[in-house]
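S1.2 Input.
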Amino acid sequence: MNIEKSENTLVVVNYCRNCSKNLSPHAVFCNYCGGKIIKNRITVKNLLEDFNDRFLSIDGAFPKTFLALFRKPEDVIGGYINGVRKKYMSAFGYFALSLSIAGIYVFILREYFMDSIFESIAFPEEKNQAQLNFIKKFAASFNEYQALTSILSIPVLALISRIVFWNYKQFNYLEHTVIYLYAFSHINLTFYILAILTIWSPKLYYFFSFLGIIGYIIYLCYVLKRLYRLSFYKLIIKTSLFALVGSIFLIIITIIAVVIMAKMGMFDELIESIKAVNEAKN
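S1.3 Output.
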């Protein structure tokens, strides 16, 4: 094979740079390790293409996955569990994309709309400033750890689901994790896109925030019904059981979170402000 050099082309060799096996002259991928044969030097374009291939696999797969998760979630989730890997975005790729959109949302909210969103909340009497400061501080802290919260939520939701569906042997715990990687990512992706589009209006923002909570519950029921082919009666039973087990987990997690927040001193400013107001009244 001829060896060429130019500003935009690497040295052309007749072996794979990944596994050192011999290549055919016009190979695009290595027949042994499957590695892509790179002939051009690094540019912004191929860096973005490599990032997309390794982590997101967006291209035409994203709109196809996004729409299918509304229409036939069992085709996307069940297909991935059963070994389908090319038709739709992977579970981790979709989750990574949702975290990326969430990061954009958090940046926009923190940098441009935090004050306008939270100053529209009305509080009675003198306590308003103390309460508002606490809520803004809490929201800022929650947004700062939003990605970590999302990552930790997946195994917890999968565990609750595995407990609720203990009598169904269709999916194991790791497969339940895949279910929530897709479902959690999908509702978050939908909510954050709507939030970014409506964040300029506090009223619309609050409406879609409330809608997001309701939408998550409805969508989760929809996904589980399609995956397990549940009757309406069984869906009600499983949803009620999920709410019960989830409430227990939520209470435990809330207690832990409050203890951590207290240790970090997040309540100190609020407590001192309330004390000062009460002393002024007396």
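S1.4 Remarks. Residues 1-7 have pLDDT under 50 and may be disordered.
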